[in-house]
């Protein structure tokens, strides 16, 4: 997901890709799932001081006994953003407030659900959004690890049913139409942005070698965030 031109990427580990990853970074906002990062790897190995880097490593949650996982959001400092705290919710997720034009705010969330996560984990995640109803726009992106082939209709999976209910309550659409190698959508782009104001495509310049299960996505949105140096940047 990006402001102006950027990426949502599942990279299956940045530990061995730091130099390669850093050299390709030119986007305003970058969202990454399955970072595999830990406390021993500083964010400056990946990004220079142009970026504010928000991380939730798997080692900082109760899942620390397992390797992998983790999420990251890097936002250029020239954009007005801040991390939001969600007490009592132990998930691989990051919540960020981004100021938009005309005093509006967008709620940005990046999340990773490990395979075979229990339905209760998803439900707790969905419930947390009830505390953020004052945001004008919502954008949720990440690896949901659900077997979604086309849409949410007539689906027997109880998790997908819960997801569908959540989307209906918050008037969200799913805009990722890029199937992976198994003809599924593991990575979802959920938002209440109008259909005419969002474009999601397969990135033609992935930041690192692409995982066939998680195609790199490029997301563009047609509104202007508050930019600290007054330069127009599109989300």
Question: What is this entry, summarized?
Answer:
One of its GO terms (cellular component) is extracellular matrix. This protein has helices at residues 18-23, 119-127, 158-169; strands at 7-10, 29-33, 51-56, 71-76, 81-84, 92-99, 105-112, 137-143, 173-174, 187-191, 198-202, 217-221. The chain has 235 residues and is an alpha+beta fold.
Indicate the topology:
Elements: E1 7-10, H1 18-23, E2 29-33, E3 51-56, E4 71-76, E5 81-84, E6 92-99, E7 105-112, H2 119-127, E8 137-143, H3 158-169, E9 173-174, E10 187-191, E11 198-202, E12 217-221
Parallel strand pairs: 1-2, 7-8
Antiparallel strand pairs: 2-4, 3-4, 5-6, 6-7, 8-10, 9-10, 11-12
Helix pairs in contact: 2-3
Count of alpha and pi helical runs: 3
Q: Mind telling me the CATH class?
A: Alpha Beta
How many β-strand stretches?
Answer: 12
Which ranges are low-confidence, i.e. pLDDT below 50, for 5 or more consecutive residues?
Answer: 1-7, 230-235
- Name the helicity range: 10-25%
> Could you state the CATH homologous superfamily?
Endonuclease/exonuclease/phosphatase
- The CATH topology name reads Deoxyribonuclease I, Chain A
- Rg calculated over all Cα atoms: 17 Å
Measure the end-to-end span: 8 Å
Structural class: alpha+beta
Strand order in the sheet with the most strands: 5-6-7-8-10-9
- Listing every helix as H and every strand as E from the N terminus to the C terminus, the arrangement reads EHEEEEEEHEHEEEE
Mean pLDDT: 78
**In what range is the share of β-strand residues?**
25-35%
